[in-house]
C-alpha cells in the first residue's frame, strides 16, 4: 500500500528520533573523510576556524569606524589617522576572509570528490561479496539503491556539517557580544528562532519518511524512465506502440508522489512563513531595546549598529544553522543506509575452509538436492541425485523452466540447496571458500552480459588480469570463432562495443555470443559450463564451435545446456530434467532406445530438419 499523509504523520515521532540517532554516524563519516586526505581536511578545518571569527570582527571594526566618524565630526581639531586605519583594517579583513572562503570551497570540492570515489568503490566491492540470493531480495535491493543514490548527497553533507562547526563558533562570538551589552536580546533571539527550528525538524522527518517509503516506487519510476527512453528498448516500444502505456504508468505513479510531497512542502512553507513573522516582530522588539539604550546614553551609536547588525546576523545564522541541521539529520539517515550496507556481515567469511583440490579425481555428486528460490514457495528442484564423473561431458536437457540453469547455479554455489548435498570428490562443496571454489569454473550463461567495453576487455572478462595478454586473447577468440567478428571491426580488439560510448560498434546476437564464448576459453578452468552458448549462432558456426569445444575439453569435466539435439548428442551422457526431477540419464544411444521424452524430442527436431 502506498503511503498517504496520515501514515507519514504516524511515523513522525519515530522519525524525529531516528533523525537524531542518525547523527551518531557523523563522527565515523568524518573519520572516513579524514582517511581520504588528512592534509586537505586539516587545511579545510583551519580555514573554517579562522573564518568563523570574521563576522564579529568585521562588525566590531564597523562599530569603531562609526564611533570614530562621529567623534571626528564633533572634534574642533579633527585627526583622521585612526579612522583610515580602521577602514584599511576592515578592508584587509574582508579580502582575507574572501580568500579563505575560496580555499574552503576548493578543499570541500576536492575532499568531496575523493570521498565519492572511495565510497563508490567500496560499494562496488561490497556488492561482489554479497550472495546472489540477497541481491535478488527486493528489500535488500532498496537498501542498496538508497545507499547508492545518496553518493552525491554525502558530499553536500560533508560541507554542511563542517559549515555547522564553523557556524557554531561564529554564533558563539556574536552571542558573547550581545550578552556583553544587553542580555535581554538573547531572550528575543530565542523567541524568534526556536519555533522555526521545531517546524523544520517536524517536516524534514515527514519528507524523509515519504522518500524512504517510496524507494520501491522510485525504482519503478527509474525503470519506466529507462525502458521508455533507451536505444535497446526503442525497437519494441515503437513497434508495439507502448509509449502511451509506459508514459501513462510513469505519470500516474509520479503524480501520486508529487501530490503527497506537494502537500508537505506547502504546509512546511506556510508554517515557516508564520514563524518568520514572529521572528521579524522579535527583531523590531530588539531594535527598540537597543534604541532605548542609546537614548539613555548607555551605549554609543557605533554600538547600536554593532548590536542591531549582530542581532540580525545571528538570526540569519541561526536560521541557516537549524535548517542545515535538519538537512544534516536527513542526509545522516541516508548515511545510515550506506553504513548498514558496508557493514553487512558476509556469513562464513572467516570460517576455516578446506584447501581446494588441484585436480578433480572422482567428480561431482548430487545427493537428493531440493531447492526453492528465496521468497518463493515453489520447489524448483525436487530431489535431484546424479554423478558427474571427472572428465565427463554431460548435457542437461529439458523443457523451459525444468530447472537446468538452477542446477548449474547450485553447483556454482550461487545458492545453497534447501535440502540435500553437493559433493566434489566426496566432500561437500560448502567446505570450500566460495570465491575460490567458483574460480574452478569457466562459465558462460545464456544471459551473459554485454559489457560496453572494448572487444579486448569483453573477452578478457574471463580472466581480467590477462587483459594485456594478446596471445591468450587471440587464442580464446580463435577457439570461439570471435576472430570472424574482428574482421569487420575498425579498431580490432580495441574496438569499443555497444552504442553507449563514442565510436561504439554494436554486434549482432550471434557475434556477441562468440565474444562471450571466448571468455570461457580465457581461463584454463577445471570445469567448463556452457549454458545455451550457441542459441544465436547459425548452424555452421554452431557445429564448428562444438567441434572445437569437444576437442579442447577432452578429458575435462564439462556441462552443456542446449535445446539443440545435434549438439546434445555429442555429450558423453545426457541428463533429462522435467519439472525439477530427473526423468532420464544415459548416453544418446541408451536414451534413444527408451521411448520417453528424450527420444520423442529428438525425433521431433530431426523431423523438422528433414
Ligand atoms: N532468480 C529466480 N528467482 C525465482 N525463481 C526463479 C529464478 N530463476 C529461475 N526461477 C524459476 O525457476 C524455475 C527453473 O528455472 P531455470 O532457469 O532453472 O529453468 P531452465 O530449465 O534453465 O529453463 P530454460 O530452458 O528456459 O532456460 C522456473 O520456473 C523459474 O521461474
UniProtKB/TrEMBL annotation:
Keyword Transcription regulation (UniProt): no
Keywords: ATP-binding, Cell membrane, Membrane, Nucleotide-binding, Transmembrane, Transmembrane helix, Transport
Membrane-crossing residue ranges in chain numbering: 40-62, 83-105, 168-198, 270-290
Domain ABC transmembrane type-1: 45-330
UniProt GO cellular component terms: plasma membrane
SUPFAM superfamilies referenced in this protein's UniProt entry, alphabetically: ABC transporter transmembrane region, P-loop containing nucleoside triphosphate hydrolases
UniProt GO molecular function: ABC-type oligopeptide transporter activity; ATP binding; ATP hydrolysis activity
Chief location category: membrane
Protein name per UniProt: ATP-binding cassette subfamily B protein
UniProt xrefs under Pfam families: ABC_tran
Membrane topology: Multi-pass membrane protein
InterPro entries, alphabetized: AAA+_ATPase (IPR003593), ABC1_TM_dom (IPR011527), ABC1_TM_sf (IPR036640), ABC_transporter-like_ATP-bd (IPR003439), ABC_transporter-like_CS (IPR017871), P-loop_NTPase (IPR027417), Type_1_exporter (IPR039421)
Subcellular location(s) of the protein: Cell membrane
Domain ABC transporter positions: 364-604
